[in-house]
Design goal:
By secondary structure, the protein is α/β, with parallel strands linked by helices. It is 48% helix and 14% strand. The chain has 15 helices and 13 strands. The strands form 2 sheets. Strands 3, 4, 5, 6, 7, 8, 9, 10, 11, 12 and 13 form an 11-stranded mixed sheet that branches. Strands 1-2 form a two-stranded antiparallel ribbon. A hairpin with a 2-residue loop joins strand 1 and strand 2. The protein starts with a strand and ends in a 22-residue tail after the last helix.
Length: 524
């Protein structure tokens, strides 16, 4: 076919065809696709095998700090007591006394927190202190008067004072007394031995410079005769005139104290030296009972009454669980925070006791109030989180530096595998300076081949593959140097041999060098 001005080639145009270009049949295309799929599968498997990190090295690196961390946490939870026990026992004294009433109020709050507070009734402050100090007993806390417990006893700690407890001196006399010295020559009851009243009665008598005897009345050298009757017995003896005075302790609302004030002929001693006595004894305080404070209708007392008082204090063992101390402090605040005849609102609980150090948890409560978590969360959950916080914060201070050290240790472990082979290459390179390098050529090349084989079997994380390839390049560099140095040594040896032959000594003139050869100028 002709076109004007053009020549057209009517042959089939050369359109690109993959089958024609590759000279492949349909079967070949299928085979190529299968090969590609197989190659892709192998590539994925290789990528899976070659992870970006070495799990074994990572585990070996992390395992020691993790084990140490677990041991520290276990030890902390064991010694720091994350959860408190379910029960607590407190000693009070007489079952009908005011301390038992306080303990029952505490027990109600403890029950709301899931803790059982058991109340133990004893014979008084002496028994409470002895039981609290005895490790064989399961007593956790006790209520007794400030000044009874020794100052240097590390086994006992104070939770705080809960109120004033006046020291009353009731007496029968036609004239009013105003000083403790008025007890001289009198029959005075101080309560049973071991009771708090007995301890403080002896203290005030000693402060007044009086001496006493409990066997006979007014013996030589003693000016006070002491008896040890119980509360009701002492009241009856005073009413009957068998006693001149009774020294006792008690809250103004206590039934025994009310009975003394309402007994005809019985007076309450108003101490004109109350302030001076309190200054001499740090566990004593001067207080004033206002007129009509005991009974407003009966106008008892009929005038302001000056006396001294100690404070009732809740003591605990030094090793009691801190959460129980916090709960006990909270119960004390709810029970004794209201105003009363002798104290203002929120005056108690307080740190008015001067003889025994405060428990650290109680001191924190008195200064800051309940912990933040206990204000919004249940007791058990708040306690667990609080104790965990005490453990976790110091551990975080250790973990933050550890998170920086662990990656460095991991990197060092991986690089150590490569550094070993760098040491081999350095040794082989140093061998090139030996004189007999020609004889060692094959040994050096074999050693390099062996190192190359080991590198092929070396498994490293992908993140370190670049360093492996650099090591292989350095290995090839050493191989080329070995070949170059040995080749130069062989060539130098080849050049040295003819030169040695050329400069060897010639035969002497006139001497035949070999049979059939004459000397220069001679004849054969």
């Amino acid at each position: 076919m002709r076109f004007p001005g053009r020549t057209v080639n009517l042959r089939t145009p050369a359109v690109w065809n993959p089958c024609h270009a590759a000279n492949l049949s349909v079967g070949n295309l299928v085979a190529t696709r299968d090969q590609l799929a197989a190659f892709t599968t192998r590539l994925r498997e290789s990528a899976a095998r070659r992870s970006t990190v070495s799990l074994s090295d990572l585990l070996v690196t992390i395992a020691p700090p993790v084990i140490v961390f677990v041991l520290i946490v276990t030890a902390c939870f064991h010694f720091l007591k994350p959860l408190p026990p379910r029960t607590m026992m407190i000693a009070t004294g007489n079952a009908r006394g005011i301390y038992s009433t306080y303990a029952e109020h505490y027990a109600q709050l403890f029950r709301t927190a899931g803790i059982t507070l058991k109340v133990m009734h004893t014979q008084g402050a002496g028994d409470n202190l002895a039981l609290l100090k005895d490790p064989a007993n399961h007593l956790d806390a006790a209520i007794l008067q400030d000044g009874v417990a020794p100052q240097d006893d590390p086994a006992v700690r104070s939770v705080g004072a809960i109120g004033y407890e006046p020291i009353w001196v009731f007496y029968r006399s036609p004239r009013p007394w105003s000083r403790l010295s008025d007890l001289a020559g009198k029959r005075v009851n101080i309560g049973r031995w071991g009771a708090g009243s007995q301890f403080f009665a002896l203290e005030v008598l000693r402060e007044a410079g009086l001496t006493w005897n409990v066997e006979a009345f007014d013996p030589p050298g003693h000016n006070v005769h002491l008896t040890t009757l119980n509360g009701q017995e002492a009241l009856d003896a005073l009413r009957a005139g068998q006693l001149d005075a009774v020294i006792t302790l008690g809250d103004p609302s206590a039934a025994t104290v009310q009975a003394y004030f309402h007994s005809p002929g019985v007076r309450a001693l108003s101490l004109t030296q109350a302030e001076a006595i309190a200054r001499h004894r740090p566990f004593l305080h001067r207080i004033t009972i206002p007129r009509g404070g005991i009974d407003l209708n009966a106008d008892l007392p009929d005038a302001d009454l000056e006396t001294i008082a100690t404070t009732s204090v809740v003591y605990v063992r030094a090793d009691v669980h801190p959460a129980l101390v916090t709960l006990l402090s909270q119960a004390m605040r709810e029970t004794h925070g209201e105003p009363g005849l002798l104290n203002a609102k929120h005056e108690f609980p307080s740190d008015k006791d001067q003889t025994v150090p405060l428990h650290a948890q109680a001191e924190r409560f008195l200064r800051n109030g309940p912990p933040l978590l206990m204000r919004y969360l249940p007791f058990w959950l708040a306690t667990l989180l609080d104790r965990t916080f005490v453990v976790v914060v110091p551990l975080l201070a250790l973990l933050i530096p550890a998170t920086r050290v662990i990656p460095q240790v991991y990197t060092w472990r991986i690089r150590r595998r490569l550094d070993r082979w760098y040491g081999e290459l350095k040794f082989l390179e140093s061998e090139l300076g030996r004189d007999d390098i020609q004889a060692e050529r094959n040994l050096l090349l074999d050693r390099l081949a062996w190192i190359e084989q080991q590198l092929e079997m070396l498994r490293l994380p992908l993140s370190f593959s670049n360093q492996l390839y650099v090591l292989r390049e350095h290995l090839e560099l050493v191989r080329r140097r070995v070949l170059r140095v040995t080749r130069a040594s062989i060539e130098a040896a080849a050049v040295t041999a003819p030169v040695t032959a050329a400069v060897s000594p010639s035969p002497l003139p006139g001497v035949s060098a070999s049979p059939g050869v004459s000397a220069p100028g001679g004849k054969t």
